[in-house]
């Protein structure tokens, strides 16, 4: 369990994280989404005690990171797969980490096996491909068999097979009851992996909700209707304060209204319907809508 | 939790011992270890154990990069070459002065040449910390050992003995080289190898190197970049004292002689005359200054590590 309370981080006059409060629960994959520069990596660095918060606290199981005696056995994290000495072998890197936390030596070979790197770990880390480095970083996170796992953009640089592997790994780690906190800019990825979503923009919390709710709550979730009396139904819906978009002669899309209400309005007016269904927004659309106002480097017009 | 374990598993006697430890219960109760119970319980290791693990990790890291070997080999080569050169010069001077047949103590030129070596060793000590900032491997280090002081202590505790041992071994090699070269007829000098004096010279040199290297670790923690760290260490060892000496003011000269390099020469009772004569204070005071500089560098490094984001 990761708990953030009123977490703030400023670098000079730039605010990276602003009053962030949330809980990341065990037994689920929590996706951490936001545009570039939204403060995702900073938040993870604050949780790990790498940066000091300007205000607020980040606790792991109720304890600040630096108070953990064997931190790697409680929290495994991969922030940047390339963040290790390029001249050292992955095997030596993991051996040093294992020593520092009193983790049995045999565990190193075990995690390397699990990430499919039994061979590559003998090579200099600088000679590894990004995908291999990513696997090594995940191996380091798994080393201490921790209850809490944090990954910053874990599928970066992985081939499709690697992406599938990471997806499966996240799900199985959560299935074992662990807390899994994963940041990504790949919305489609989160749609497949996450149970719960935390969305931030410009360092502020935008949404903290189950995945299904984020999609359902989107204004882009709409009700599609096919009817031979499109004009009449359109007028009725508009009169009821619903935004209606006409797609074709017989088709309407209504937003900001439930499917039940559209059905009821049509029934009251005696209008025949040939089709009535909800059209779910993809996470991508929901996300763009949520973060539209908080993109750090918006292009030209959008910026105004 | 501990009490629970005693009541379920232990009989009466054990329970009594657990509640009221006798003098024999040297290992103490699990929740309140005595001085001897330094190892603590497996799930609540003591600080000493945590430091030991951090040292183990730094040890693995030190030997798993090539730069360590290069720096140590460079330092040894520098010491041997420097010592032979200085020794040859000394022997030639003696011969020219008509003191043919005078004895040169083999470890003397080695100690004189020791002023060159700290730079190669400082490079190694620099890399121990700055390479982690350059590669951002420091994130993994601090994730594994979040207590900043423990990381710094572990690095110092690995660097110090490695450099001390490397210094003594290189010094022994250099002493051997000096005595072999000076034994050649051309110098007309005789070499002396008084065992006690040689051992003392080599041990003091090893300690001098170790302290300068630990000082460098402290500077590295504060400065973080390799170039910056080496510049600061160079200034502390050579630049600042030279500038102070050039000003010629007596206070400035006195101060320059207390800076780490000259303090080290004083501690080793080096016959070197860079400053126009032996140091005007005893060896013990030289050691004290050296330890003081090292402690100050570690304190600054620790303060920066604690305050600044990684």
From TrEMBL, chain A:
Q: Provide any one GO MF term from the record.
A: ATP binding
Domain named ABC transporter is located at 2-227
Gene3D superfamilies recorded for this chain? P-loop containing nucleotide triphosphate hydrolases
Keywords, alphabetical:
ATP-binding, Nucleotide-binding, Transport
Please report a single Pfam family linked to this protein: ABC_tran
Q: Which InterPro entries match?
A: AAA+_ATPase (IPR003593), ABC_transporter-like_ATP-bd (IPR003439), ABC_transporter-like_CS (IPR017871), P-loop_NTPase (IPR027417)
Protein family: Belongs to the ABC transporter superfamily.
What PANTHER family does its record include? ABC TRANSPORTER, ATP-BINDING PROTEIN
Q: What is this protein called?
A: ABC-2 type transport system ATP-binding protein
Q: Which organism is it from?
A: Nonomuraea roseoviolacea subsp. carminata
From TrEMBL, chain B:
Q: Which UniProt keywords apply?
A: Membrane, Transmembrane, Transmembrane helix
Identify the taxonomic lineage of the organism of origin: Bacteria, Bacillati, Actinomycetota, Actinomycetes, Streptosporangiales
Protein name in UniProt: ABC-2 type transport system permease protein
Q: Please tell me whether the keyword Transmembrane helix is annotated for this protein.
A: yes
KW Transmembrane (keyword) present: yes
* Source species: Nonomuraea roseoviolacea subsp. carminata
Q: Which domain of life is it from?
A: Bacteria
TM segments?
69-89, 109-129, 156-182, 202-223, 230-253, 287-305
């Amino acid at each position: 369990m990761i708990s953030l309370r009123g977490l703030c981080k400023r670098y000079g006059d730039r605010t990276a994280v602003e009053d962030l409060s949330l809980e990341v629960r065990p037994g689920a994959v929590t996706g951490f989404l936001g545009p570039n520069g939204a403060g995702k990596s900073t938040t993870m660095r604050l949780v790990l005690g790498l940066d000091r918060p300007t205000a607020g606290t980040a606790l792991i199981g109720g304890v600040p990171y630096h108070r953990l005696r064997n931190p790697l056995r409680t929290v495994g994290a991969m922030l940047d797969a390339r963040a290790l000495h390029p001249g050292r072998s992955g095997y030596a890197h993991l051996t040093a980490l294992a020593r520092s936390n009193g983790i049995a030596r045999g565990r190193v070979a075990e995690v390397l096996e699990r990430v499919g790197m039994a061979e590559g770990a003998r090579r200099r880390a600088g000679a590894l491909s990004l995908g291999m480095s990513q696997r090594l970083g995940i191996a380091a996170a798994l080393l201490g068999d921790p209850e809490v796992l944090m990954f910053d953009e874990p599928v970066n640089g992985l081939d499709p097979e690697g992406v599938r592997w990471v997806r499966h790994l996240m799900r199985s780690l959560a299935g074992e009851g662990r807390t899994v906190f994963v940041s990504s800019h790949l919305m489609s990825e989160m749609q497949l992996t996450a149970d719960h979503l935390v969305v931030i923009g410009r360092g502020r919390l935008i949404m903290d909700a189950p995945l299904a709710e984020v999609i359902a709550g989107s204004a882009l979730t709409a009700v599609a209707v096919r009817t031979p009396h499109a004009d009449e139904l359109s007028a009725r819906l508009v009169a009821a304060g619903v935004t209606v978009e006409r797609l074709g002669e017989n088709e309407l899309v209504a937003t900001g209204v439930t499917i039940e209400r559209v059905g009821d309005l049509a029934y009251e007016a005696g209008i025949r319907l040939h089709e009535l269904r909800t059209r779910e927004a993809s996470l991508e659309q929901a996300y763009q809508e949520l973060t539209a106002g908080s993109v750090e480097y918006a292009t030209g017009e959008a910026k105004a | 939790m501990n009490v629970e374990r005693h009541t379920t598993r232990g009989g009466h006697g054990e329970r009594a011992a657990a509640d009221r430890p006798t003098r024999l219960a040297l290992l103490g109760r699990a929740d309140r270890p005595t001085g001897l119970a330094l190892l603590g319980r497996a799930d609540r290791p003591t600080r000493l154990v945590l430091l030991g693990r951090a040292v183990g990790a730094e040890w693995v890291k030190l030997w798993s990069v090539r730069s360590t070997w290069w720096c140590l080999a460079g330092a040894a080569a520098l010491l041997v070459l420097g010592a032979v050169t200085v020794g040859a010069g000394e022997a030639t001077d003696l011969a020219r002065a008509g003191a043919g047949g005078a004895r040169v103590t083999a470890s003397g030129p080695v100690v004189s040449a020791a002023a060159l070596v700290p730079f190669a060793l400082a490079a190694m000590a620099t890399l121990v910390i700055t390479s982690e900032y350059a590669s951002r491997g420091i994130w993994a280090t601090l994730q594994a050992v979040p207590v900043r002081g423990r990381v710094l202590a572990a690095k110092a505790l690995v660097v110090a003995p490695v450099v001390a041992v490397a210094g003594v071994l290189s010094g022994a090699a250099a002493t051997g080289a000096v005595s072999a070269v000076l034994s050649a007829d051309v110098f007309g000098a005789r070499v002396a190898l008084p065992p006690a004096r040689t051992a003392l010279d080599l041990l003091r040199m090893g300690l001098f190197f170790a302290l300068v290297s630990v000082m460098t670790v402290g500077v590295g923690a504060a400065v973080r970049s390799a170039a910056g760290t080496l510049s600061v260490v160079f200034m502390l060892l050579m630049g600042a004292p030279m500038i102070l000496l050039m000003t010629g003011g007596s206070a400035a000269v006195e101060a320059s002689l207390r800076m780490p390099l000259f303090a080290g020469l004083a501690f080793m009772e080096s016959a070197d005359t860079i400053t126009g004569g032996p140091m005007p204070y005893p060896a013990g005071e030289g050691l004290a200054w050296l330890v003081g500089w090292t402690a100050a560098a570690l304190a600054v490094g620790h303060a920066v590590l604690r305050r600044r984001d990684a």
